[in-house]
């Protein structure tokens, strides 16, 4: 059955963030009613054509339970990625958790770089320039909107 396992044993509060273009960090909390010896395992699939991969670098809590994962060399495609977290316990069956996520929606962008400000006091104006941050899923500038907050001293 799809929901086999002890009720309340599946993970909760699953979330992932992609940062620095190709690093992804996923975290979760143990199920409310999961036995103390429950160990969780994360698998993901970037697209239907790719093979499912297990986490290679787990983040562990104080009880040495897997409570997160760091993935390297992540590439963002157009398809939703599939995530599956299952668990095991010697005491009972653990419910699994799964979710499809658009990776581009969880990418945390870095701030602009190489910011320069050149002011001309005679003309009473300033030119501010910067390089947009690198992102993994697009090279289009139309994705970006900037806000400049100028404070006078």
Automatic annotation (TrEMBL):
Record carries keyword Nucleotide-binding: no
Domain annotation Type I cytokine receptor cytokine-binding: ranges: 13-106
Membrane topology designation: Single-pass type I membrane protein
Listed GO CC annotations: external side of plasma membrane
A Pfam family matched in the record: IL6Ra-bind
Keywords: Glycoprotein, Membrane, Receptor, Signal, Transmembrane, Transmembrane helix
Entry-linked InterPro entries: FN3_sf (IPR036116), Ig-like_fold (IPR013783), Short_hematopoietin_rcpt_2_CS (IPR003532), TypeI_recpt_CBD (IPR015321)
Superkingdom, natural source: Eukaryota
Gene Ontology MF terms in the entry: cytokine receptor activity
Location(s), subcellular: Membrane
Residues in the signal sequence: none
PANTHER family for this protein: CYTOKINE RECEPTOR, INTERLEUKIN 5 RECEPTOR SUBUNIT ALPHA
Protein name: CSF2R factor
Organism from which the protein derives: Tychaedon coryphoeus (Karoo scrub-robin)
Source species taxonomy: Eukaryota, Metazoa, Chordata, Craniata, Vertebrata
Gene from which this protein is expressed: Csf2ra_1
